[in-house]
């Protein structure tokens, strides 16, 4: 039998930790003076990394850490998870300053809405097969409690294009769990509703790119895999499916024979002649299908809402039409989702993604990345205002980082998107624009790689680059561009990048977790990303009771065994 290690609760004495290591996981620890039940330490097998990291091991490991942190003391009725896609700590810091400077402040002293939350932690984001992760594998860790491979949507680790292998590897998500437990569920995103992060709440495929049936390889179709858009409809096998689903991606749900209702020159992408929006309306005769802001506001009393506001991703906040028939903001979608979900007396779970933070960073465009982060902050504040701290657990996190740098020695209050005005090094006297060793000014923000490389490309000439720039070829460039006459605060300016890439890459460092509400006290320390799932299910009695009903809990009521999706499907 392999030896075991114990994930201890923080703050316990060394002697107590030693004692806990010998306590069987089936025994309960006496209630605390406050009357909150505490549980015994959970044994987790010692394994060889990474080969010994099975799905069951990941699940138990996350459960042990969450329980040791006290998540089982949570009494949340509702859970809202905000996911800032690609929202690195650098992105948060820079957005905080931009938000403050827009308010007329120096900026550094400002706080985004979630930075006022009482609990914080760090999340380790790697995938099972990659140090620097993607959004599919990371969000699957958050939604299922297990880490998996890059590109995976709701399945345990395997091969990205192996449909047959993945069919037996579906992992239950906490939205499906909530649906099975009779709670209302919601998904809100500014990306396509079939994109990696939202898809990981309801779909199960080894390859995140299989968004509509035209994306499925012939062998995957023959082996029985289903595209992500179609799975949104079949997700009702656990209950009723998402009560609210809002985002972009109309084209993934409509056929190539259908013209888009908003853009006369666009059609759907499905090749099976299915109109999934019509099928959704048939399955939800009292529900509302909407595709603009006016329709969303008019659907306030509908029991279910499907909103698809663009054929592709929704527009960046900076580019969004503000007229009544345009797109709703992320804050407006947040308020609409909470309004609909809160009518369910059993409670709800809701995932809200600020997706385009990631896209702007990939484009090397700090302005839009920070602007999208500020829009997410407004959405988080809208949720705080619309809910009670007594019954709603709110978490804010990111799936992964990016290569955005915040450097130089700018003076206090220097425009965060501007050139460094102050010192070029720690030893310099503060002055006018700081200069590099070539005598050229430089910006506070830059990217380690991406399309902002100053060499000439097949798209733009040598020198500073402008949004949107996605070159297929680039020429080498000597030195840096002269930014003296360049407005680096222009929304379309691309920050300089050291390594030329068509799309800037993700970063591998930790990201933040911020939490408020019942169960939030457990959110502390540096945790594996899959532990976020366990924070949620352990802090929500209705979720953990449903898991216990499926015989996945230990004697203390902690869900420690990997659940089988079939055990949570509703009777047909």
Automatic annotation (TrEMBL):
GO function term, MF aspect, one: metal ion binding
Organism placement in taxonomy: Bacteria, Pseudomonadati, Pseudomonadota, Gammaproteobacteria, Lysobacterales
Keyword Signal carried by entry: yes
PANTHER family: ALKALINE PHOSPHATASE
Source taxon at top rank: Bacteria
Alphabetical list of Pfam families matching this protein: Alk_phosphatase
CDD domains with a match to the protein in the record: ALP
Keywords (A to Z) from UniProt: Magnesium, Metal-binding, Phosphoprotein, Signal, Zinc
Free-text remark on how the cofactor is bound: Binds 2 Zn(2+) ions.
Stretches the record annotates as Disordered: 244-264, 451-485
InterPro entries associated with the record: Alkaline_phosphatase (IPR001952), Alkaline_phosphatase_core_sf (IPR017850)
Coiled coil: none
Cofactor field: Zn(2+); Mg(2+)
Protein name listed in UniProt: Alkaline phosphatase
Organism the protein comes from: Pseudoxanthomonas indica
């Amino acid at each position: 039998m392999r030896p075991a290690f114990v994930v201890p609760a923080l703050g316990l004495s060394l002697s107590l930790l030693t004692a806990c290591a010998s306590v069987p996981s089936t025994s309960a620890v006496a209630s605390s003076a406050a009357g909150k039940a505490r549980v015994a330490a959970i044994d987790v097998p010692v394994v060889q990394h990474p080969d010994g990291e099975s799905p069951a091991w990941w699940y138990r490991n996350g459960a042990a850490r969450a329980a040791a942190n006290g998540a089982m003391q949570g009494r949340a009725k509702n859970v809202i998870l905000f996911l800032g896609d690609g929202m690195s700590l650098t992105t948060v810091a820079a957005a905080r300053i931009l938000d403050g400077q827009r308010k007329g402040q120096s900026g550094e002293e400002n706080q985004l809405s979630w930075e006022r939350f009482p609990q914080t932690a760090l999340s380790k984001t790697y995938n099972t097969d990659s140090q620097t992760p993607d959004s599919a594998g990371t969000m699957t860790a958050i939604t299922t409690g297990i880490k998996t491979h890059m590109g995976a949507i709701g399945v345990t680790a395997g091969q990205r294009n192996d449909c047959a292998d993945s069919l037996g590897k579906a992992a239950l998500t906490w939205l499906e769990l909530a649906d099975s437990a009779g709670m209302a569920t919601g998904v809100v995103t500014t990306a396509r509703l079939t994109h990696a992060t939202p898809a990981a709440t309801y779909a199960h495929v080894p390859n995140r790119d299989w968004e509509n049936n035209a994306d499925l390889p012939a062998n995957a179709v023959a082996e029985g895999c289903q595209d992500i858009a179609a799975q949104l409809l079949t997700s009702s096998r656990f209950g009723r499916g998402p009560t609210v689903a809002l985002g972009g991606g109309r084209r993934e749900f409509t056929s190539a024979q259908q013209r888009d209702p908003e853009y006369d020159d666009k059609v759907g992408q499905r090749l099976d002649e299915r109109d999934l929006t019509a099928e959704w309306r048939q399955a939800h005769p009292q529900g509302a299908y909407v595709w603009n802001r006016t329709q969303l506001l008019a659907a306030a009393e509908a029991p279910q809402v499907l909103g698809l506001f663009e054929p592709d991703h929704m527009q960046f906040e900076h580019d969004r039409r503000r007229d009544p028939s345009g797109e709703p903001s992320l804050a407006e979608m947040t308020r609409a989702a909470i309004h609909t979900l809160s009518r369910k007396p059993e409670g709800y779970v809701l995932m809200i993604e600020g997706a385009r933070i990631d896209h702007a960073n990939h484009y090397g465009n700090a302005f839009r990345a920070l602007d999208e982060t500020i829009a997410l902050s407004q959405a988080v504040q809208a949720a705080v205002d619309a809910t009670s701290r007594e019954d709603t657990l709110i978490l804010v996190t990111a799936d992964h980082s990016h290569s955005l740098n915040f450097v130089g020695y700018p003076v206090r209050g220097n425009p965060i998107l501007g050139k460094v005005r102050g010192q070029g090094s720690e030893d310099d006297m503060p002055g006018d624009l700081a200069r590099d060793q070539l005598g050229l000014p430089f910006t506070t923000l830059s990217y380690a790689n991406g399309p902002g490389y100053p060499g000439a490309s097949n798209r733009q000439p040598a020198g500073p680059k402008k949004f949107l720039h996605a070159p297929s070829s680039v020429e080498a460039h000597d030195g840096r561009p002269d930014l003296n006459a360049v407005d680096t605060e222009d929304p379309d300016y691309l920050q300089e990048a050291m390594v030329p890439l068509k799309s800037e890459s993700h970063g591998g460092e930790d990201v933040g977790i911020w939490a408020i509400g019942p169960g939030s006290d457990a959110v502390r320390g540096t945790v594996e990303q899959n532990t976020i799932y366990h924070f949620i299910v352990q802090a929500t009695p209705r979720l953990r009771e449903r898991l216990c009903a499926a015989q996945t809990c230990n004697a203390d009521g902690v869900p420690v065994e990997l659940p089988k999706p079939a055990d949570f499907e509703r009777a047909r």
